[in-house]
Amino acid sequence: MTARPEDYAPALDHAVAHTLAWLASLPDRPVRPRATADELSGVFGGPLQSGPSDAAEVVDLLARQAEPGLMAMPSGRFYGWVIGGTLPAALGADWLVSAWDQNAAMRYSTPATAAIEQAAGEWLLDLLGLPAHADVGFVTGATMANFTGLAAGRQQVLADAGWDLDRDGLTGAPRIRVLVGAERHATVDQALRYLGLGAPVEVPADEQGRIRLDALADELARGSGPVILCLQAGNIHSGAYDDIGAACALAREHGAWVHVDGAFGLWAAASPATRHLMSGHELADSWATDAHKTLNVPYDCGIVAVARPGALAAAMGTQASYLVRTDGGPSDPQDRVPELSRRARGVPVWAALRSLGRSGVADLVERLVRHARALADGISAIEGATVLNDVVFTQVSVSFGDDARTREVTARLLADGTCWMSGSRWQGRDILRVSVSNWSTDDTDVAASLTALHRACEGRAPS
């Protein structure tokens, strides 16, 4: 018998109450969690009970026991690891996705989610200035977006070299040279490992982490055979952008596939104020971004776009007699992503874009940049603090003198709990890294965060 609404109502009612309580706590709760994973393992673990439990009671138990181990990542004072919050419309849409329980693989079986994701993809291409004919896939995050875009590139450059990857595999194939900037994100190397392409060729970068065009030209001229070039739209430490247009022009001279890793930075193209950072990005072949970062949709949702017709489906597509296809029209969602079974990740993207509109997306990007610059200005006024990067987008990297001092200030700040700024290491020194990614961050959050940083520098406890 099909489940009845009343079977779900108690558990969902309790989940709504706990969700609203969690959201209400965010303005005032410390950002740091109060319990460790080791401490909570004993709470959640132990032998599984012998019989069933009431669904609503399970939800209550889950919420109550998890609460001490939750970090306030949705807080406007969370600036760690380039993690955004969740827009209200996107959160509501994500709940619907779970309730609808659609396997968003085929247009035939799930026409609503297929149409929603198609519309979201078209909006994204338009907003980000990408070719209107590009294919768009919704994957788990930036790592898999990079993987998928690079898989399409691998398929295409080997086909261009006369090699049938599907039939013959990689053994004996022409060696693909993959060129990357010295400061690319680690997930690019991770994706290359997944694809069996080995270690990339590292091209020197400048002081802000941008790939050097002179060194790129030399490296392109140094070899022959299939080439993939990975560029960066937003350095993880400086926020700096490779000169994508000029690099694409160099790559075209050598028949290279160009992939752009724009996990958070691709969204600069959506604002007239920051679009110049992305000049020439439409000349690339594939692009990767992460919607849970700058766009602020729930986990998990990465986006890949591929310009060359058929390359994405050739790399990702699946054929089987039981997979019913519609005649004509766009390809099935399953042909654009690694997974066959997946949730309809594009639905919260559609909801976020529909709630914001074109001007709202631009305003969101511009607010994040404005708050990053305000934090950088405030930090620069702290004695002993040095902002190390040109703040062109949403990233701020700070030193407080020597490494030991920087680590000490970082530890004090995180223990304070008012805000969260992650430590890192950049250009041979320890830093405090600020990533402004949450739609809800406001001037009050910025001021409170700067006050907390002052306390950390002075060694004072919160009042």
Automatic annotation (TrEMBL):
UniProt keyword list: Aminotransferase, Decarboxylase, Lyase, Pyridoxal phosphate, Transferase
Tagged with keyword Cell membrane: no
Presence of keyword Cytoplasm: no
Sites of N6-(pyridoxal phosphate)lysine modification: K293
A Gene Ontology biological process term: carboxylic acid metabolic process
GO molecular function: aromatic-L-amino-acid decarboxylase activity; pyridoxal phosphate binding; transaminase activity
Cofactor annotation: pyridoxal 5'-phosphate
InterPro entries reported in the protein's UniProt record: Aromatic_deC, PyrdxlP-dep_de-COase, PyrdxlP-dep_Trfase, PyrdxlP-dep_Trfase_major, PyrdxlP-dep_Trfase_small
TM helices/strands, residue ranges: none
Pfam families: Pyridoxal_deC
Domain of life of the organism encoding this protein: Bacteria
Database matches in PANTHER family: GROUP II PYRIDOXAL-5-PHOSPHATE DECARBOXYLASE, MIP05841P
Entry similarity comment: Belongs to the group II decarboxylase family.
Protein name (Swiss-Prot/TrEMBL): Aspartate aminotransferase family protein
Lineage: Bacteria, Bacillati, Actinomycetota, Actinomycetes, Micromonosporales
